[in-house]
## 1
Amino acid sequence: MARYATSEGTQAVLIQAAGELFAEFGVAGVGTRAIAERAGENIGSIHYHFGSKEGLLLATLRYATRELLNDPLGHYLDEHRDLAATTRGQACLAAGFVGLFFDLVCSRDTPPWCMSLLLHTLQQPSEARSAMRQEIMDPIQNAYLRLHRLIHPDAPLATAQVWALNRTAEATFYVLFESAILDYLSSPSYAPEFLGEARRQIQTAALLTLGLPCEELTA
């Protein structure tokens, strides 16, 4: 039992190992023994800390999406809702909202496997997907819908839904296809200037598709 005394440290290395392996080989292609070996831990530590492989998967997904948990976009709208009273304010609100999502998704502090694992999990029906939809995907899409409704309250639901999905896809593209994009750029990593320009263009596209002025684009 002494092997499991350093609880937080043990959980952290297991989550990191699981995330790397799940992203590379798929959840079904990875066993608990391989995870324990990658982490340098006893296989029993997985069951001790997480109960099962499925419990470890969910903990790994929550770590991977920790910046997106607890509806940060919804809180942003709550805190800045008064901006929606004017066209200029709406432009600032939308630009700030879209910029925040880009920053959360494209954070350089996040291991590269995080978004890949989340997107892979969302492709197949599972308990993990249900949890991630409830905790991450639905709140994000609902926040984007709220933003659209604040600016165009009479727009058809389908119009708002497609707008929301397109805007989230623009940011996640840079994470999901990071390896291929870096090959295209002949670069080992994204330069801050490149990410800044990607962020600005995504903000601009959001404003244009909402019919808002781009002159008030804010960081």
Note: Confidence is low (pLDDT under 50) at residues 1-5.
## 2
Amino acid sequence: MSVLQDKFNAIVRKIEDRIEDEELLSFVKQQIADISILFIDQLDKVVDLSQRRLDELIDHEKDLTKKVAQLEQTMKTMEKEFYVDENFDFEIVCPYCNYEFVSDFSQNLKEQVECPECHNIIELDWNNHEEHDCSGHCSCCESECGQEEEEDEEPEQETSKELKIEIANYDEESQLEEETDMEEVEDDDEDDM
């Protein structure tokens, strides 16, 4: 700031050396001071504006830092929830004694496990269709298997036979009710005569 002040004073001295009329010199000095104040006010406004923008950027950076921290925390949580570890803990309920226990498995999944309470062997179904001699065309693997179709047709045939028997029984009952109703109507007609 002292360099600026020195330059300003040097300009004023040059003006004083050239202008001999005191009234004119006073007027020029006042105009230079007014212009200087105007420039300083404008500079202050620019500095204030720059400071406000800088403050906004700092606040925005703080917000972004918080959001990044939240995202990192969310990612860590998701990683813990979704990351599949090589060791699995499964909760198993024994079908023999209803004892509930936790068993851990590695990547090589076991096909059976022993109940720690009753010591019976529990076979585990991992929905691996290849182990069940599945040809890949049954409902458990979302396709149509010849074995499944045959098994499914038998209950349908039985169901349709049952429906036919029920319909026949209903028809017989309906006929009996109609005959009974007709006899009652005839009896009522005879009584009326």
Note: The mean pLDDT is 75.
## 3
Amino acid sequence: MPASGNSTSSNIKVEMLNIYQLLDLLRRRTAMYTGEASVHSLGSFVDGYSFCQRQAGMAVEDEKPDFGSFHDWVANKLGYSESASGWRNMITSQRLDAEEALWLFYQLLDEYRGLYPRTLASVAQENLEDSPQPSKGIRPAYTSLTIEEVLPAKEWVAIIAKRHDVISYRRSADTIEKAIQEAENIFGIAPDAWALTAT
């Protein structure tokens, strides 16, 4: 049975994030909020958030482009004839690994929003080939290694290893210096192997 009305509740002002603000908040530690690093878990979280917004009668402005059109955009981007299966299924079908599919989601989301992260540092191909096996962990397979700014907040950076065009490893760090240190531990890449991009 619903609780009786509280006269003070109508005076409480709650500011809801739009979907993009929510996803920007979740991006760094998605699994901490959704329970696991997967597109389906993230999609369920977003659906629940949107349901709460509707139930509370809270209109959220400044959601451009319209996230409701993301289904059709993903279908066109990935070569589907229609979008009935939804962005979750279409993106998940592109990767065998759930976490790699999640990284692809954020990559596609940035492109849909017209955001193109800037590469802050990279490792030349010859340095990738000559790098020793790291002493800690297992080095993921990769053909390129970069450090990129994370948009739109630019409050942290990401180490991104790719197998050709597929992200095979992604790890966040607070600064470029910490990212380089992390890359040495994971990939065996010496700090002096990095070329910083001029700002």
Note: Residues 63 and 134 are 43 Å apart (CA to CA).
## 4
Amino acid sequence: MSGQKQQCAYLGVDPIVVFGRLIVLAKRGPDAETEPGAWHTPGTIVRIGQSMEVAMCDRVRQKTGLVVTPLCDTMQRSLVGIYDSPERVEKYGDVALSFLCRVVDGAMVPGERIAEVRAFRADEIARPDHMATLKIGFDHAQILRDGIARLRELGEIE
């Protein structure tokens, strides 16, 4: 199978991490395999035998040092969206679900292959010119726009 093109998409989770009224992003380190130096939501691929919630919480902690829980009472109510465009699947090999989660403990400490962890105001990242300046990686600009809109609907941010 080595050298053959991937035939199936993986399942990914890309959380929107809410810290107070701020949104936490991680900056990929210079040794990252894809998009080094890009800011992103601290997501991951869901492993066999792992729930999306466990995958999300574990990866956020590994990448940022923060302990999170779903923002709403269930993962379904915390859902931001499903990101399954053919371009995404072709480029990154996964279909991602994005969820809102809230920081409940921990301290911002960059994990392996993460250069920096930082909390941003929504207006610092929501505008297209700010997203370009920050170098938002992958297709996370759309995920962040959708997440910010959902947070505003819920009254979590202004």
Note: The mean pLDDT is 93.
